[in-house]
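Dear colleague,

As promised, here are the two records you asked about, laid out in our usual form so they can be pasted straight into your sheet.

NAME FIELD: protein one
SEQUENCE, THEN STRUCTURE:
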Amino acid sequence: MSADDSDPLARARVATRLPAQDLDRARRFYSEQLGLEPVDERPGGLLYRCGGAEFVLFRSTGASPGTFTQMAWEVDDIETAVSTLKRRGVVFEEVGLPGLLGGGRTSDGIAEIEGNYPSKGARGERGAWFRDSEGNLLGIGQLVL
């Protein structure tokens, strides 16, 4: 079964939610390391907007396992993005995973990823991963055209 305009979720906006055990610490990380400021807030939550999408950091007593990418940004120049964030103190993960080219490992925090979604018109992707102050695993990707 495929989704069409009559399906309520097919028309809905996706809004990512990321847990934060310490919302003040998370706000500082997102501001100082990522250069992002909330556009709105409520008790226990901070709303951010990036490139027409939004995500929320919410106060949670649970901790993220950080074992998978929970949210990612697509950028035009991954080297510049990684370099800028490193200067701000972001530490990128050096990982080895199936599907990564170049021996299956990142190099200087950046991985060459085999393939991409056909609808994006790319032959691959470059990716990098880091953790926020709350242990959420976040990614940056650049399409390889």
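NAME FIELD: protein two
SEQUENCE, THEN STRUCTURE:
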Amino acid sequence: MVKTLRIDGSRGEGGGQILRTSLALAALLRQPVEIYNIRANRRKPGLRPQHLVAVQALTAITGGELRDAHENSTRLYFAPQTIKGGNYRFKIRTAGSTGLVLAAVLLPLLFASTPSEVNITGGTHVPFSPPFHYLESVFLPALKKMEGHVELSLLRWGWYPKGCGEITAKIDPCACLHPVELRRRGRLLGLHLTVGLTELPMHIAERAATHVAERLSGEDCKVETRIVTAQSTGPGVIVFLYAIFERTIAGFSALGRRGKPVEQVADEVCQDWFDFKSSPATVDSHLADQLIPYMALAKGNSCIITEKFTSHLETNIRVVEQFLPVHFHLDSNTGEVSVQGIGHGQQITLIAT
């Protein structure tokens, strides 16, 4: 019998990431886990609707045993069985992030024996989570380089607080993840701006696009801009910029809200781009965070460089260390994070500038 692994959900940033990464790796490794102090560092501790949906989704795709999982619960037990590909539908009844639920099920479904199609309803462009366009344009291309093939579609936009957005992911099985080696980002090939809005006047999007164009007028290449209008259950606006380099892609986004000038939203995105550009980073901090479990599972040497070492990133590292025979080491002087794989001898290097 496999011994149950106990995970303290209050460690590090103490949020939902510990839950998602723990359950995803547990499902992949068929490792029973007990998670306690779930989201202990949040204003409302315990499982919120989107976290509960992620837990239930992983139980469904593994045919596992689940105990004590209910809304506001701060403890649960999960004993997964065999991962099964297939067609799945999961609905978050709030504006909880569809992208974060996808993050929980994607890793195990990549290693299913058959393809999968996952439909998720909830928030597609909401605070504190990667928006659909970031996943589509930044994360999935990076995963594809590691031989993880996923096709993502946006069926309906969903903003906070109503949600009701909808995405579908088609996931092909992956026999083995390849390492990622990104020590240099190479020459800048293009800057692409998307301004998306629903139930708002077109001039708001046009002002955002104009402001970004003015702020980035001195760049080496012209900003390719598109304005997207869509139907949704409520108003919303997003400014999303992604940069394509010879070796990598980085993305930056900000959401509008009532009383916040859209020029300020655009400024936030531009500043994130300037900060990234002025560093030697090869991936933005959000992508670094997302790639940690995949890098730890890849066979071979990996290296990425990110512009900052966030609490989310460190928390994800510590969770992965509890499940896999890898050890991460942070050099506080150089900002370099190295990972030695005990299991298959890989060495992973992550540098936070």
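A couple of things worth noting about protein two: Residues 262-277 form the longest helix (16 residues). The first strand starts at residue 5 and ends at 8.

Best,
R.
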